[in-house]
Amino acid sequence: METFINGNGSLCCVVKRSHTVALIAMPFNKITPFVVPIHHVQGSTAWGGGMYYADFDDAYSAFIKRCLAFGYKPIDDKGEVKSLYDE
């Protein structure tokens, strides 16, 4: 799992990624611990804005929608394409 410390000194973990679309968890953020950045380059410790979520399911749905909007196929750990309808 890709992890890094952001500019605020917070631990960040990339939960899912497809190209430059990422779902990042910030485990010590008690209000909005999930973010889907506008753009995040693998290995970078920063991102330029994005949507923040208190709930993982909402963040994951936003990640899938953003991937599909860019024409990216969100891939799971097994290499399978996932969609909003997969359980």
Structure report:
The protein is α+β, with helices and mostly antiparallel strands and 87 residues long. The protein is built from 1 helix and 5 strands. It has one helix at residues 56-69; strands at 2-5, 11-18, 21-25, 34-37, 50-53. The chain has a 5-stranded antiparallel beta sheet with strand order 1-2-3-4-5, with helices on one face. Strand 3 and strand 4 form a beta hairpin. The chain is globular, with a radius of gyration of 12 Å. The mean pLDDT is 87.
List keywords for this structure.
single chain; 87 residues; five-stranded antiparallel sheet; 1 helix; globular
- Work out the oligomeric state of the chains in this entry: single chain
Largest sheet strand order: 1-2-3-4-5
Q: What is the typical, i.e. mean, pLDDT? A: 87
Shape: globular
Order of helices and strands: EEEEEH
Sheet-strand content, in percent, reads 25-35%
Number of discrete helical segments: 1
- Main sheet summary: 5 strands, antiparallel
- Gyration radius (Cα, Å) is 12 Å
Poorly predicted runs of 5 or more residues? none
Q: Give the number of DSSP strands.
A: 5
N/C terminus separation: 22 Å
> Share of helix among residues?
10-25%
- Structural class, please? alpha+beta
Topology, element by element:
Layout: E1 2-5, E2 11-18, E3 21-25, E4 34-37, E5 50-53, H1 56-69
Please summarize what this structure is.
The protein has about 90 residues and is of the alpha+beta class.
